[in-house]
Design a protein that fits this description.
CATH topology of the largest domain: Nucleotidyltransferase, domain 5
Helix content: 40-55%
Number of domains: 2
Strand order of the largest sheet: 3-2-1-4-5
CATH architecture of the largest domain: 2-Layer Sandwich
CATH class of the largest domain: Alpha Beta
Structural class: alpha/beta
Shape: globular
CATH superfamily of the largest domain: ATPase, nucleotide binding domain
Order of helices and strands: EEEHHEHEHEEEHHHHEHEHH
Length: about 350
């Protein structure tokens, strides 16, 4: 079965063709990073305009690269939540037009479910049930994946996401946007013990997380150094930030896996590209005797292959949308994708 996937939730426009939820035939992506870098973050209105300009051309390129015709497509899957509302609407409306003109089913896909599905592409042998940590610029949550479309949140951040913490910290360090990859690279030459940073715990909610205190601690540390005329050891501070984020994510995820009896653990989302987090998870999984799954770096960020992959399983579960499909800036991952 061939699924045309469309992704436009933030600042990447992407269109893909995926067979049976696992085999990527084409994945065309246009990143807007350079456009938004000058502003230090994504400007929603600019992102939406760029999506409008790019999406049709990317769809044509994806179909050509896949070596198929439009009539070969069996369904159109699209990210409809969560994300920047204007950006989402571009993808949703393009997907509705494509599905209508082709006479094919339209399948709504939750963006975070798509991130989880990136692991199906990277590891075709992976099947539910398993535990998945989803970490991105806007989300940090531990999800019990009981089935391809049956998911339950075990824990989540109470405030900032891990990716946002990295990006804001990078700005303080003068690294620019996006900051996660730059902090990761800088941290490799630093001493993580030089700076003491907090690891928050939520009383009564052992699987929930908080990153606002860490972000504030980094900002205050940098400002105090500036006021005193002291020079920051940026590599060491970057290393300390990476260690603090990893120390927040890894133990909680492993504890949740033990409590649920899950021996398969997957990591997904843009922050899953962080080398410190990957290394710490590998050590922890080895110690626990658990199977660990990571997508390759190219599938950690936003892409349409993951949307098409999850779209395949949503389709098999009977999820469909009509021309009334809307976009939603926020929506729990447990939502099943049916139009209400």
């Amino acid at each position: 079965m061939l699924i045309l996937g469309v992704e436009s939730s933030c600042d990447e426009t992407a269109v893909s063709v995926v067979r049976d939820g696992r085999e990527v035939l084409a994945d065309e992506i246009l990143s807007q990073v350079d456009i938004h870098a000058v502003y230090g973050g994504v400007v929603p209105e600019i992102a939406s305009r760029c999506h409008i300009e790019a999406v049709a051309g990317l769809a044509t390129a994806a179909i050509q690269k896949a070596g198929i015709t439009k009539s070969d497509i069996d369904a159109v899957a699209v990210t409809y939540a969560p994300g920047l509302i204007g950006a989402l609407l571009v993808g949703v409306n393009f997907a509705k037009a494509a599905a209508f003109s082709l006479g094919k089913p339209l399948v709504p896909v939750h963006h975070l479910r798509g991130h989880i599905a990136a692991n199906y592409i990277a590891s075709p042998e992976l099947e539910p049930p398993f535990l998945c940590l989803v970490i991105s610029g806007g989300h940090s949550l531990i999800v019990d994946v009981r089935g391809y479309t049956d998911m339950r949140i075990i824990g989540s951040t109470r405030d900032d996401a891990a990716g946002e913490c990295f990006d804001k910290s990078a700005r303080v360090l003068g690294l620019g946007y996006p900051g996660g990859a730059q902090i990761d690279e800088l941290a490799k030459s630093g001493d993580e013990k030089k700076y003491s940073l907090p690891r928050a715990k939520i009383e009564g909610s052992e699987f929930d997380m908080s990153f606002s205190g860490l972000k504030t601690a980094v900002i205050n540390l940098a400002h105090n150094a500036k006021q005193k005329g002291e020079e920051l050891d940026r590599p060491s501070l970057a290393a300390a930030i990476s260690a603090a984020v990893s120390d927040t994510l890894v133990p909680r995820t492993m504890l949740a896996a033990r409590r649920l009896g899950r021996k398969k653990i997957a990591i997904a989302g843009g922050v899953a590209a962080n080398s410190r987090i990957r290394a710490d998870f590998k050590r922890a999984a080895e110690k626990e005797g658990a199977e660990l799954y990571f997508p390759p770096l190219k599938l950690c960020g936003d892409n349409a292959s993951m949307i098409a992959a999850q779209g395949y399983y949503e389709y098999l579960a009977g999820r469909r949308a009509g021309m009334e499909l809307n976009a939603y800036a926020t929506l729990p991952i447990s939502e099943n994708g049916e139009v209400k």
